[in-house]
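Aim 2 progress. For MOONR protein, the working sequence is reproduced below.
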Amino acid sequence: QVATNADILSEKLLDDLLEDTAQELWSMDQHESLQAEALPVADTHSLESMLQRMEEIEMHREAVRRRVAQIVYSDSQLWAQEDKMELQMASTAKNPKSPHPVQITKLIRHTEPETEILFEKPFDSTDTDENKEAEEKLQTGNDTLQPLALNSLQKAYSVSLSVPSDVLQSILDYNSRYKQHLKLISHEVVGSFDPWQIA
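Predicted structure tokens for this construct:
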């Protein structure tokens, strides 16, 4: 009898095991089928939520655009002037004006009256004999020092200086070289060439 009881017990355990295993398999199959059905629904839900979020973002951007368009600046006249200036600059940039002609004119130099210098032998009151000899030499033209004639209008500006003849010659040479230099650098007519007729 114990053996029969053991067989019955083992059969019962096997039946329970088989039933539990079948139940587990059925629940696993059911879960898989439910998951397969739920995935498209979840996908459509996520797509719908994404589309809805994009619409919300678009609405927010449009609201920001409307707010910026409705901003009223405190100094509207200044903004209007700047807009006008920009329009004028754009129109001038499109239609460039012809350049102004270049005019070459001769400068009028303001020259002060030249003061002529009288070169004479110094007068020494202690030596009257030498003074008389100097006057005689000046009259004969043999002296090494030469007097320069004064213009009557420039007598008020003249200053008398006494220099040796080599210094006087050096001054005169320098003056002639300076005048020659001025002729070279000036824009005066040279032969048939007139620089002022070019312009």
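Residues 137-150 have pLDDT under 50 and may be disordered. This observation will guide construct design in the next reporting period.
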